Write a sequence for this structure.
């Protein structure tokens, strides 16, 4: 999935994606490699559920890594304080009130 369009992120959103990428490429990838190695030691791969499950997990992990990298590569960091008061934009904090008068901050 190649993104042609820039994605606007706040500094905190970008930092969260960078943290997620570090986790995925570090400990999570190492754990999947270990699971594949352990499953291979069980023998015949054609009927080895653990091996197929670990390979599937590896595919999902690599896909998520690609998505996060693409988002970071196309990111434009915005200042969440740029939005004028009274408008809703990226990073804005809003209060929503339902028909019963209950309010939540989002």
């Amino acid at each position: 999935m190649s993104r042609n369009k820039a994605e606007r992120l706040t500094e905190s959103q970008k930092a969260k994606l960078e943290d997620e990428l570090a986790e995925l490429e570090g400990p999570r990838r190492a754990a999947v490699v270990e699971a594949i190695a352990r499953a291979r030691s069980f023998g015949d791969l054609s009927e080895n559920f653990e091996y197929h499950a670990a390979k599937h997990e590896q595919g999902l992990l690599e896909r998520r890594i690609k998505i996060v990298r693409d988002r970071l590569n196309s990111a434009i960091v915005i200042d969440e304080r740029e939005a004028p008061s009274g408008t809703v934009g990226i990073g804005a904090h809003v209060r929503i009130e339902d028909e019963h008068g209950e309010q939540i901050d989002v």
In short: The helical segments are 11-40, 49-73.
